[in-house]
Amino acid sequence: MLPRGRGDKQAIGPVKVADGVFQLQVPIPRRGMTEEGGLPNTLTYLVEEPGGWVLIDAGWNDDKSFHAFQKQLAAAGLAPRDIRWLVITHHHWDHVGLARRIKEFTGARLVMHERDVRWAFAARLNSDGTARRKVRDWMVRQGVPPQDLAAIFRGHRWAPPVPEVDVDVRIADRETPIGGSPTLRALHTPGHTAGHLCLYDSRRRLLFSGDHLLPEITPNISLFPMSRANPLGAYLESLRRVASLEADTVLPAHQWTFSNLRQRAEEIAEHHEARLREMLNALGSGPRTAYQVAASIAWNVGPWHTLGLWTRMSALFETMAHLRLLERRGEVREVADEDSVVYVRSG
Ligand SMILES: [Zn+2]
Predict the structure, then answer these.
(1) CA angle 191–180–174, rounded 5-degree value
(2) Among 51, 59, 203, 330, fewest CB within 10 Å belongs to which?
(3) Cα 295 to Cα 326: distance, rounded to the nearest angstrom
(4) From the CA of 253, how far away is ligand 1's center (Å)?
(5) Is residue 27 within 8 Å of 64, Cβ to Cβ?
(6) How far is the CA of 163 from the centre of ligand 1 (A)?
(7) What pLDDT was estimated at residue 38?
(8) What CATH number was assigned to the domain covering residues 15-123+158-270?
(9) Which parts of the chain have pLDDT scores under 50?
(10) Domain extents for the chain?
């Protein structure tokens, strides 16, 4: 499901959510960005551990966002040097944007999953003509109409305005202790991105869920151009994994705190199963391109022809993640030739 730009119901931070845990609100001022709708802020977290304070997520790269962070840090009674680790849940702009600035300001060690590092600071893609051509060819084969293609390739910024910074700890394991404590662990939860991390605090019974689990909206699960991965399959597995954790409170990166972890995880899984069935039905008896499937199913943000270009593209990538999972389950076949890729129901 796509974000509808709903306002946040919480007060301005810092909010003390548990002993030694503060929630901060870092605004997302999308100046000049093409993205539509969107969320008003990123919720970041300060967690006190034996080795010092851990900051979970940085926020959007903007002065306004940085100053909001500074103000809330001071209001929480902390000095920049108190923060010893900065853990980024995933490579999206609203999470990693301020990583360099906060690392310089605090001297914290920057922690990310290795599979997200290369996407976080990929500014060179902006000027890589070969990469752009490949993406364009791929989109043509998925059935994206010429007028959309023209608009997409006319001046879109391909990579985030995120200043490059060295990552000190590249996580590769399924579970990694953080903050000098065995009770706070980063869990690899691929799906929303390949290197998404949740943090589980078993002592306080808290789950910092990043964008993996949100109280009302479902995180976007997308297949990216040329990828052979199965992000929705990975996501549903990650969802089952966190659903079994002993957590009383879930602290997400957007919207608001919630407590019904298991129930919310089941709801989201069921939402995707329903979408999978809809797409299977949309395939009918004939072959369809991914674009045709995306255009023929219902979207919560409105009828297909009323959606803006970027919403349609994000809906296309989400559709493809579902088609890929259907293919892996043996319910759909992907038939590719030089000009197009189409999907047909098996059997
Ligand atoms: Zn986010």
Answers:
(1) 25
(2) 330
(3) 18
(4) 6
(5) yes
(6) 18
(7) 73
(8) 3.60.15.10
(9) 1-10, 34-36, 159
(10) 15-123+158-270
